[in-house]
Write a structure and sequence with these properties.
Blueprint (H helix, E strand, L loop, with lengths): L1 E4 L6 E4 L10 E2 L2 H10 L6 H7 L1 E2 L9
Antiparallel strand pairs: 1-2, 3-4
């Protein structure tokens, strides 16, 4: 974990930088990923990331 300041909005947040990080709940299109990478080198906070990404849909469990 590390303390980060979002380069887009200036909000402080904790980046877990692993599979438990909030960013793993989102999917970025290749276009949006390139756009973010061209503008910023640091992680975005969840509020800003959610403007560029869509949430991952939960998997439906089949019922037998």
């Amino acid at each position: 974990m590390r303390d980060v300041v979002c380069p887009r909005c200036g909000k402080a947040f904790v980046c877990k930088h692993d599979e438990t990080c909030f960013c793993t709940k989102y999917v970025l299109s290749e276009e949006n990923k390139k756009d973010i990478q061209s503008k910023w080198t640091e992680c975005l906070c969840e509020d800003c990331l959610s403007l560029y990404a869509r949430p991952i849909e939960p998997k439906c469990e089949s019922r037998s």
